Request: fold
Amino acid sequence: MPLPTPTLHTDRLRLRPFTEADADALFALHSKAHVLRYWDSPPWGDRARAERFVVTCRQLADEGTGARLAIDRVSDGAFIGWCSFARWNPDFRSAGLGYILDDAAWGQGYATEAAHAVLRWAYETLDLNRVQAEVDTRNAASARVLEKLGFLREGTMREDCVVNGDVSDSWVYGLLRRDWRPSPEKALAAREGRC
Ligand SMILES: CC(C)(COP(=O)(O)OP(=O)(O)OC[C@H]1O[C@@H](n2cnc3c(N)ncnc32)[C@H](O)[C@@H]1OP(=O)(O)O)[C@@H](O)C(=O)NCCC(=O)NCCS
Reply:
């Protein structure tokens, strides 16, 4: 069943479906080695990758297997990154979460705000139980984002990724519906109460 990619609004962000017009900004983002240093694939060297990405976004929506949302900053309309609801499996009631922001936008709470909006949409719209995210164990900022959202670290996958010969371990994080909270502040407080 198709899963139309929603448009979501937060205080500072607008999350929306990708269009062909995003290809240049998307390519610029995914070309930055510094931004991609803990990503599970190398930086892009070819703009056609961005065009294929946009096509795949539509396929995911048509197949109903996920949603990739472009993130615009409301104050200036700038594209600052994207967030994905991935691997949606209605039988298992599970999905994955991912996000990437341009380095100029880091450290302002945008990733947490965007991912929280996607989780809210998913938990309120779908019969979703579990959301999983995998994080390079060197990626402290991303681990912190997940913890602020209420995710628990469940384990380590040793030598999970090999990117350009660089072998890395990944942490697995999980969030269950019963641990989902309608605000990041409540999620963090509830999580710390459980630890
Ligand atoms: C990971 C990423 C999405 C974080 O985006 P962001 O908008 O800066 O995240 P937020 O501001 O919402 O939260 C970041 C948190 O990590 C903390 N942090 C940042 N760098 C850190 C570090 N080196 N060590 C520990 N904590 C760190 C911040 O202080 C903040 O926590 P706080 O609110 O408790 O102070 C961003 O760095 C990014 O896009 N990286 C490249 C792509 C990537 O790695 N994606 C994740 C793949 S799993």
